[in-house]
Amino acid sequence: MSEHTLNDMAIGEKIKIKSITATSSIKRRFMDIGLVENTEVECLGFSPCGDPISFLIRGAVIAIRRDDCKSILIYNNN
Prior knowledge:
Blueprint: E1 4-5, E2 14-20, H1 24-32, E3 40-46, E4 53-57, E5 60-64, H2 66-69, E6 72-74
Antiparallel strand pairs: 1-6, 2-3, 2-6, 3-4, 4-5
């Protein structure tokens, strides 16, 4: 069974963060914007080319590249 990431979200879907598998500075940046375990995240939309994706995180709209979204694991809503 594969892990679900931010890339698997649909527009309007709300989930909670399970963990971050990124290393070094990108993990620190995610933590600085509030992406920690159990943080609620809402997918707001995709750019016209599909990358980056915009999310509502703790009241702020944040755009994250798809490649970076792969390292943010989410709880499966099913």
